[in-house]
Specification:
Length: about 600
């Protein structure tokens, strides 16, 4: 029987193994609850320190903790980071040879592993379940941690059917504590996780969803590639980032175009050859300054802390998806940006995909409701962060650091114009697109207007005081908010929906968010790494270079050695002794012993 390898104190493990002096948020309560045998369902934002919530109890409890993780890349990174910290951790997955897998099993049966990472598919095999039975019978099974627990939700795009079968764990291994963790789940998804994993009685820990280091920016689509390039060049030249696109073709075309513009970009989508996809992911994880252009196939479990921006060239499917994807930026707590270019055509495309999907009517209804919630976020004229947090049931005030707070949008009470537009759609038979309807509203006697006899309808010319561009913006937003729908089988004809009735009856208003004119950018809080005046940035640069060489030598991602945030603290503190270095956040006993002298040499060698 393997006894705990560390003193039975959560704070001792936190400080001496992981190098942190204090828990954040509800970490301590979660750790103590799990360590004493309780079950837990944890919702904590990406970068909030979810992994410590089960890694520390694993070191406090007797035996080996089994961590269920959905991705090989995530297992590799987390195990590498634990080994660097001096923790006995390993994984079992298809990347191992037969001999390597047997070596891990010998370590497991010998009681020499604190944590073992496995995919749900492997855990559920009869052979592995027999292994778990033996660990249970010999009191060497510490706990089960189910990471990325939203994979159990059939409503999400990360759904993994194997996760549903993890409900056997409490029946087969009663008394073994379980913790399920996710960064993204609305109330419906939380209930589904609890029900499907049989965690209804588990204590729930819901941390703040706020990521104050992320600045949210959303722009109207004009020339989205050029807009993206300007954003990267102005704010994130040389930074690591992720650009999400809806289609595989757009991923490849955007990545190739960015390379032509001098951006170090790579494509990633599920249709690529496995070897090429894996090679691109490895480069992104292990090199600095790579921009990954990807579909949503990329991202879950990506543990790279120094992603400085996440950009969307297409509208995500839901607020949950947007929150999860943007949460991959700034995991180290340093400034980062979430940037999106969107247009009403994105909303039309998403609604069409929902309508043509093979899902049940309940699924389609839920998908439409989630899309509508996202449209509400992008159309919001108030604080983005406040709106986002309210969606997850969290009250907050304006953040002062999103685009709407920094540059409040211009608005117009467009109630009268919107009623005229809807009336024109009705009077012309709900058979025409926006261009023709605008001609009618503005009183333009075009060939088509005359041919259809629309100069005689009551709405002809009633909108002559509104320019063409504003009418187009209004029609886009009427579609985006669901008051008009697009009939694709009739060449984009616009038709009224039931949601238009209150506005037509005078029971509702319509405020229009006007497209932002291109203007000189105001001075805003920096989203790049800042080192205060008087501290030589060359020291930070030299520390990063030293870390890069070491990571290449050890064949691990650079952030597994140290995060940028830790290097920044070293650059600020300029320690001259091991005792001073030990006080830097992120440096535990093992790393101090392994790298302390080398770090002090780098610091001493910088003038």
């Amino acid at each position: 029987m393997n006894a705990p390898r560390y003193a039975p104190s959560a704070h001792h493990v936190l400080e001496h193994v992981f190098g942190y002096t204090a828990f954040r948020g509800e970490q301590q309560a979660i750790v103590e609850h799990l360590a004493t045998g309780g079950d837990a369902l944890v919702l904590m934002p990406t970068g909030g320190g979810k992994s410590l919530c089960y890694q520390i109890p694993a070191l406090l409890r007797e035996g080996t903790a089994i961590v269920v993780s959905p991705l090989i890349a995530l297992m590799h990174d987390q195990v590498s980071a634990l080994v660097e910290a001096g923790v006995a951790a390993a994984f079992l997955n298809s990347s191992l040879s037969l001999d390597e897998a047997r070596a891990v099993e010998r370590e497991l049966f010998g009681g020499r592993l604190d944590l073992l990472y496995v995919a749900p598919e492997r855990l559920l095999t009869p052979r592995f379940l027999d292994t778990l039975d033996e660990l249970r019978d010999t009191r060497r099974l510490a706990l089960f941690a189910i990471d990325e627990a939203h994979c159990v939700s059939q409503w999400g795009h990360d759904f993994r059917p194997e996760y549903l079968q993890l409900s056997i764990l409490p029946e087969r291994y009663p008394g073994i504590p379980r913790i399920a963790l996710t960064a993204t789940a609305d109330r419906h998804t939380r209930e589904e996780i609890a029900r499907n994993l049989r965690l209804q009685e588990a204590r729930r820990f819901v941390s703040s969803f706020d990521r104050p280091n992320i600045r949210y920016r959303m722009v109207d689509k004009a020339d989205p590639r050029r807009q993206l390039l300007a954003f990267i060049r102005e704010d994130h030249q040389g930074d690591a980032g992720i650009v999400y696109c809806l289609s595989r073709r757009k991923v490849e075309e955007t990545a190739a175009w960015l390379v032509e513009q001098g951006v170090d970009a790579l494509p990633y989508h599920a249709g690529m050859p496995t070897e090429e996809r894996a090679a691109n992911q490895t480069r992104f994880l292990r090199e600095d300054g790579i921009v990954m252009v990807a579909t949503i196939a990329f991202g879950m479990g990506i543990d790279k802390p120094d992603v400085r921006f996440v950009a969307h060239l297409d509208l995500p499917r839901s607020v949950e998806g947007y929150y999860q994807e943007t949460g991959r930026a700034g995991r180290d707590g340093l400034p980062a940006q979430a940037w999106m270019a969107w247009g009403a055509a994105d909303v039309v495309q998403q609604r069409r995909m929902i309508d043509e999907s093979e899902g049940s009517e309940d699924f389609k209804r839920m998908a439409r409701a989630r899309l509508d919630a996202l449209v509400g976020l992008v159309e919001s004229t108030g604080c983005r962060r406040q709106h986002l947090l309210e969606y997850f049931g969290e009250a907050s005030g304006p953040c002062g650091n999103c685009d709407n707070c920094l540059e409040p949008p211009r608005t117009w009470d467009a109630t009268d114009a919107a009623r005229k537009a809807l009336s024109c759609v009705f009077r012309t038979g709900q058979r025409y697109g926006a261009g023709h309807l605008i001609d009618v509203l503005r009183g333009e006697r075009s060939e088509k207007v005359v041919e259809r006899g629309h100069e005689a309808v009551s709405t002809f010319g009633i909108g002559a005081d509104v320019d063409d561009k504003t009418w187009r913006t209004l029609f886009r937003q009427l579609v985006a908010r669901g008051l008009l729908t697009v009939d694709h089988e009739r060449y984009g004809a616009l038709a009224l929906t039931d949601e238009a009735r209150p506005l037509l009856r005078g029971e509702a208003g319509f405020t229009l968010r006007l497209s932002a004119e291109k203007r000189q950018r105001t001075k805003r809080r920096s989203t790049t790494l800042e080192i205060p005046a008087g501290i030589p940035t060359t020291l930070f640069d030299r520390l990063r270079a030293w870390r890069t060489d070491l990571a290449r030598e050890r064949n691990v991602p650079a952030y597994v050695i140290f995060h940028d945030a830790t290097l920044r603290e070293i650059a600020l503190a300029r320690p001259t002794s091991l005792s001073e270095l030990a006080g830097v956040s992120g440096i535990g006993d093992r790393k101090l012993e392994a790298y302390g002298e080398a770090i002090l040499e780098v610091v001493a060698g910088t003038t």
